[in-house]
Amino acid sequence: MKNEAAYQVPRLSAAGINMLLYRILQQRADQLQLFGGEISQTGFVTQLAQEVNELQGANLTPEDVAQLAQNATTGDLQAKLHDLAIVYTDFVTATAGKYLKPADVLVQLNAYLRHRDLRGTHVYLELTGFAQLPSQEQGIVTTMLERGADVTVSLMLDQKVVDHAPENGSLFYQAWRLYYRLYQYAQIRKIPVLNDLHARTVRVSDGLVALDDYWRGHPQSQRVTNVAVHLIRTDSRQTELAQVGRTIRSMVAQRHADPHDDYHYRDFLIMTRHLDHYQTMLAPTLHQLEIPYFVDLERSMADHPLVELIGALFDLDANHYQYRDVMRLLKTELMLPLIDGVPMARRAYRQAVDLTENFILKSGYTGSRWTQAADWQYFQLTEGDAGVETDKNAAVSRQINLIHHFVADTFPPFFKQLKAATDGRQAATILVNFLTATGVPHQLLAWRDQALDRQDVATAAEPEQTWQTFCEMLDEYVTILGADSFDGEHFMALLQAGFEGASYSQIPSTLDQVLISESGMVQSQDRKVVFMIGATDLVMPDRIMTNNLLSDADKQHLQPELKAIGDDHFLNDSAVVQLGDESCLNYLAFLSAREHLFFSAPLKDDQEAELNWSNYVVRIARQFHLKTHTYLGAPDPENPD
């Protein structure tokens, strides 16, 4: 398929899609009933892009959406579908044959397979743990079936469902639903369905087998404590993470009669529903314990200093050199003053910036004070001043005015050029030339080299990846919006949305590492020990929130119409269905372990509010008579034990 002509057209990234939708909203503002006034709202274009992608994933054409709009019975839904039909139509027209979108790849693959004889082709699909198979992806499976391929699908099920659609709320609802859809598709088209194959080999320890049986509703009689499941409470998240680390170190240090029973760091998986509560304490805690680890999550580029620099640069002019914007820009350390043609040493630069910040906080200098040509007056000589003190003040004054003149000489000429730009192409060219002239790419490369010297491969890759992403977004901006007039505010919003959707490519630096992930992700099943940290009632089950343009109520109203269009059109699951899947999601997380499962949770959050065990953990503890072990960061004087 890589040699097909349609596959050779330029790829359109998430940022490029946002830019194209932004232009469509501008051009169609007068015809849109709801979306016309939303273009300036933060995040709306990204939200719209997600909705368009969902429509494509559901195999809905612009004509289908227009028909749904005509048949809609509620005014608000009708207006949403009306606007979506207009935007979707223009989006498909603008990209057809010119750009390749993520959804187009599946369309092309499906079309390619429809013209191939797949008899004798054997396909194995590992779908265990995947909650939902979108319409487009399911269409690939059904096409392979139609073209004669032998398709084996692996699903997490305890029984098959063939006679009636499964009911939401059952443990394996998502997998049952997919099984039922594929089975019915094959039956209608007279495609043979072979007998089911069942996994027979027990993968986990006896204690986890008992947990498996209990969670599926077939509890064993439990007379003794389950030695494979453990409970830990701590006074804080910091203590919790430290205790998990100490437990891992202790287990790795143990030596067994059979070396195959020894633990290695690669045998451990730390999971939680949302890792953001632990993000800032992971590195210092695990580094202190000398535990190698790898965080198996996509990390957004949105917080990189380059993104902060560009945002502060545009805010600097928009807000006329306010304290916060100037300091944001200076503290990125991506633009350094030149001393004798060489970038200023970082330590000296930081000292000069700190002195400047103290001075402007004391003096209140802001706005045009930053762009004045005259030196700032740092001190006033008074009678009785000693010469030593005057020399010290003079040195401080030189450092402050070095930063002052760096700002005054560097940025006003750039802003003057940018305001004179006639279109987006010229503005993008001015911006890149300015960043290059002020040494930003050079500084990024210096950061890369410093990280490589520390043998920190992951950090070393970030500067180049961020700069490459920035350049690619600018290329797409010039291609899509280059001929339009330049609007700095909207330009920055598009860049920010693009960086939020961009993530770093990550490669583990060593094989023997503790893996850290989130329970919502599909995990491999080769870890001996799993720690479920943060197992509180706030996240187990999780509190599902949806923020889509088409609400859950809208999707419910559309179900009969979607059914009328065809059986292969279904939108993403509602919050109710996702909430019903929480039990299965956590079941899969529990059984990622082969030998031991640890639940841990802090007693209080960062604001000292009390936290409770998840109801899931309470039920498991009651069933298996588990004792909770409590650890404090500092000894409790009232309870020495």
Write up this protein:
The protein is of the alpha/beta class and 641 residues long. The chain is 49% helix and 8% strand. It is built from 22 helices and eleven strands. The chain has helices at residues 14-27, 44-57, 62-71, 75-95, 102-114, 135-146, 173-188, 206-215, 237-253, 279-288, 305-318, 323-330, 346-363, 387-419, 424-437, 440-453, 457-481, 488-501, 552-565, 575-580, 582-590, 615-624; strands at residues 122-126, 150-154, 229-234, 268-272, 293-295, 338-339, 342-343, 514-518, 527-532, 593-602, 628-631. The strands form three sheets. The protein has a seven-stranded parallel β-sheet. A hairpin with a 2-residue loop joins strand 6 and strand 7. Helix 5 runs parallel beside helix 6. The longest helix has 33 residues, at 387-419.
Tag the structure with descriptive keywords.
alpha/beta, seven-stranded parallel sheet, two-stranded parallel ribbon, 11 strands
**Which word captures the global form?**
globular
End-to-end gap? 67 Å
Question: Cα-atom Rg, whole angstroms?
Answer: 30 Å
The number of E-state strands comes to: 11
Strand line-up of the largest beta sheet: 5-8-4-9-10-3-11
Q: Enumerate how many helices there are, as a single number.
A: 22
* Uncertain stretches: none
Task: Determine the structural class based on helices, strands and strand pairing.
Answer: alpha/beta
What share of the residues does DSSP label as strand, in percent?
5-15%
Helical fraction equals 40-55%
- Quote the average pLDDT: 88
Q: What's the story with the biggest beta sheet?
A: 7 strands, parallel
